[in-house]
Structure formats: structure tokens, C-alpha cells
Amino acid sequence: MKLFKSYFIGPFILLLLPFTMHAQTGKKPNIIIIVADDLGWGDLGYHGSEIKTPNIDELAREGVNLNRYYSAPICSPTRAGILTGRYPNRFGIRQTVIRPWEVFGIDSSEQCIPQMLAEAGYKNRAIVGKWHLGMMKPEYLPLHKGFTHFYGFYTGEIDYFTHKRSGELDWHNDDQTSYDKGYSTDLITGEAIRCIKNYNRESPFFLYIAYNAPHAPLQAKMEDLLLYGYNKNKPAYQVASSTASTNNDESGLIPTQGLGNTKRQTYSAMVTCMDRGIGKILNTLKELKIDKNTVVIFQSDNGAAKNNGGSNGALRGYKVQEWEGGVRTPAIIKWPDGFKGGWVSDQVMGYVDLMPTIRDIAGITTAPKNPFDGISLLPFLQKKVTSIDRHFYLGHGSMVTNQWKLVKAKGGNSRMKLTEDMLFNIAADPDETTTVKAQNDKIYVGLLKEVEKYDTIKSEVPVPPHGKGRKDFIAPKEWNVKN
Predict the structure, then answer these.
(1) Using an 8 Å Cβ cutoff, are 347 and 303 in contact?
(2) Are 219 and 270 in contact (CB under 8 A)?
(3) Number of H helices, E strands in the chain
């Protein structure tokens, strides 16, 4: 791991530094964000996993391996932070995922990445895959957030083969129902490639690819299950009706096809299928000779869920927790024309940094609609600065810096079941084995003051009470919510 000399530079200064590709070549880059769903830290080859991920591993070798990259510990908040550059509790999306029965989503006062890029001349701005940021009103849907094209599903935890959620087909092409047949991972890959080929004629373009793999329900194609020793003479893994959803999404879906002999086997097959798709996308960029001036960002939305086939390696905890296993996610960025790859970053950074970084890359100099919580990391990636001192808020009383991590008990995440606050020297103890609060009282008190600034944020957007609308909920026909 590389160690960086401490050097402070404020976020507002970073936003003003003119390190843009536009200034270097006169042509703005294409921008692709790829998000995996519930992919664990320990589930990639370059992190020592037995799961076959040759394409993501190659991306990590050629790009910048972001070794200290953080997300929210659960799906919807991370996706909201990616698209806005702001901590999701500012607009009420922090506690949990947005559930299908909730009439709620990203507020119209928030500017999203595609809306920002529209002002910078990015004509084509597509989302392919999972949305999960509001689905019960048209104004919450992707085409109302600056995207010019949507292909995929609104909700979460759909069946990979039937594309159904809550008994209804949830697969769409723009605002029309799509009856495309196939395994969802392959359909997402295919549409992403079609977009790249079509948009290449009118570059630059923005493409947000949100796979649902390897999120539950665990379902894989036979060809991938066979790679991991599937035996048709052995029984499939069992899914009990009471535990059909292990990811806090409460769909109750019990899959009937694509089940391997074990959860780990099925999960591994799903990850390898996604990796193959990512490889096809990257190869398409090379074939079109646009890979050099295309920014590719890869990350998981959170850590692996407990008891669902995934692994967070030696990191403590799981999805829905602010332990490292829930929030420290695999992440890579590559842009050959913009900065040199082939190195590992130990700089603290994360999901809310993508929008300000992309803003810098696209050469946008006007003030953002709303103040960012994230910062532009382009100067760091271009090695104009060696390190950035910052306090990165993880939610529910948790905060991390380049050296320290605070996890609060009172007012923190109840899923972590703490009886006292903990302080870790996270740079030396990434597995969070030993609290050092007693020996570092000054650091502890300082972090308590910092985290309080974010814990006390009150959303100006009314947030529906948990469970409101769930009773007697019936999904709209084919998830058509246009009216």
C-alpha cells in the first residue's frame, strides 16, 4: 500500500482547480459509472478471492485501485449520494432502501449527474439496470432526473429470469414496458454495449450501468454454475419463505430457477457473469478506439450481506452496518488520457466524491446547484496533491479519516449493537480489532464534534414513516406508474 504525506487542501479549493481534460485535449471524455450490487470486499480476484473476475482484476491493474473507498452501508442511500454528490440524509434517504410501497424518492430540488452533464454538452445520458430511488410517481423516475434513456427496473430484488417484483413485471425501455427475455445481467450488458455503439457517433456520452448482481435472490445461469462445480444430482440450496429476503428489501421472493447447490456457488457464478459483461463493455470501448478518453468508474454499492453467499474478507461486519465490511467497497477508476493508472490509492474517498470529480473532468466551472459534501479527486488522481485531509461521514455516528475511525454507540446504528463508542487507528487496523479510544482522548473528542455536524442534519423533505403504505400494498400493473 502506498503511504501519502499529509497535505491539507479544502474541498472548495479543489473544486476550483482547473485540472480538466477539456483543457488538455479539447475533447471532453465519455463517462461510465458501473455499480455492482452487494458485492463484497472479499469477492474479487485482485483481493484474493477464489471467484473468477479476470476483467475487473485487469481494470484494477490498469487503473487506480481505490483501496480506501467508502459508500453508505445500504443500496438507495449510496445511489442517491453517487448521483447528487451529497450525503443522502440531507434529503431523507439514509435509514434504509426506498421500498416499493413508499411514495418517496430523490426530491426535485436535488441536481443529479445527468442534469449537470446536460449543461456541459453531454447529449446522451443513459441509465441501464437498477434504479431504486423512487418508483411510485413519475417525478421520481430516471427520465425525470436528467437521463435521456432508461433500460432496466425501478425497484430492487427482482427475479433474474422473469424480471418480476411483487408479482409484476418490472422491466422497462424508457417509460414503456419491455418484454425482453433473458438473464438480467446479460440484458444489462447488451443494452450498455448498444448505447456505447450508438452514442459514440455523438460523443461525449454518460452511461450509468447499475447491475443487480450479485444481490439476492441468488440465481445464476447453468454455464456459470458449472464453472463452480454444480452437480445436478445434488439438491439446490434452500430458501425458506420466512427468510426469502436477507437484504432488508422485504420482497419475500422465493426463486424457482437458477439455484446452485450452495449459496456461495450461486453467488460466485453471478459475480463471474457480471465480470464477463464488464469485460465485454471494456472491449467495446477498445474496439471503437474510445477507451483512452473514456472515464470508467467501478464500485459496489455496499458490502456483502450476511449469510447470503458473499464475503467481506477480513473486514469486520456486513451490509447495513458502518463497520468496514459494510461501507468499505471495492472501487476502481481508469482514464488513460487523464491520469496514469497502475497504482493503489490509500486516500479516503467515496461515493459522494463522484459528482464533483466528474464535474471537474467535464470542465464545468459554474457553481453547483447545491453545495457538495464530496470533493473533486481529480487533482489527487493526477498527482497534483499527494494527500487530502478530510472527515468522511459514514452515517449513524460513524466517521473516517485517513488515520482514524469513530463508531458511536448512542445514536449510532442499532444493527451494530454497541455498548460504548469505539475509536480505531484504521490505517493500522483496517479490520477494526482494537479500540484505542482511551489512549487518544483528544482525537476521540474532536471526531465526536465533527460527526455531530452530520448526525444532526434534518431533511427538509418529508420522509414517510417506516412501513407506511405496506399494508395491503398491490404493485401497479407491470410497474407502470406514468399516471
Answers:
(1) no
(2) yes
(3) 12, 18
Range of the domain at 425: 391-460
Assess if residue 112 is contained within a domain.
yes
Q: Is 201 in the same domain as 119?
A: yes
Q: 152 has which bridge partners?
A: 129, 172
Q: How many CB atoms lie within 10 A of CB 449?
A: 9
Q: Kind and range of the H or E element at 404? A: strand 404-407
At residue 439, what is the residue type? Q
* Catalytic residue check, 75: yes
Of the three residues 345, 372, 389, the one that is the final residue of a domain is 389
For residue 45, give every residue at least 6 positions away whose Cβ sits within 8 Å of its Cβ, in sequence order, or none.
51, 52, 53, 54, 56, 57
Q: Are 132 and 253 part of one and the same domain?
A: yes
pLDDT score at 21: 40
As beta bridge partners, residue 153 has 130
Both 433 and 293 in a single domain? no
Q: Where are the alpha helices (DSSP H) in 28-120?
A: 54-62, 75-84, 113-118
Cα 451 to its chain centre, rounded Å, is 23
Residues in the chain: 483
Q: How far is CA 380 from CA 25, 101, 215, 430, in A?
A: 20, 42, 32, 22
Q: Is residue 5 part of a domain?
A: no
Flag whether 481 is in a domain.
no
C-alpha 167/C-alpha 231 separation (Å) is 30
Burial class (CB in 10 A: 0-12, 13-18, 19+), 336: middle
Q: What is the percent of the chain where pLDDT is above 70?
A: 92
Q: Which of 22, 47, 112, 132 is catalytic?
A: 132
Say whether both 100 and 170 belong to one domain: yes
Q: What is the mean pLDDT of residues 432-454?
A: 97
Query: What is the DSSP pairing of strand 349-350 with strand 30-36?
Result: unpaired
Q: At residue 117, what is the residue type? A: L
Q: What integer pLDDT is reported at residue 26 of this predicted model?
A: 56
Question: What is the side-by-side strand order in the sheet with 392-395?
Answer: 392-395, 398-400, 404-407, 422-425
C-alpha cell recorded at residue 87: 450525503
- Amino acid 285 reads L
pTM of the model: 0.92
Query: What does the pLDDT read at residue 243?
Result: 40
To the query of whether residue 132 is one of the catalytic residues in this protein, the response is yes
- 361 part of a folded domain: yes
Q: Which of 75, 112, 195, 273 is catalytic?
A: 75
* Radius of gyration over every alpha carbon of the chain, rounded to an integer in angstroms: 21
CATH number of the domain at 98, please. Answer: 3.40.720.10
303 shares its domain with 241 = yes
Residues 358 and 414 in one domain: no
Q: Provide mean pLDDT across the span 277-295.
A: 98
329 close to 75: Cβ distance less than 8 angstroms: no
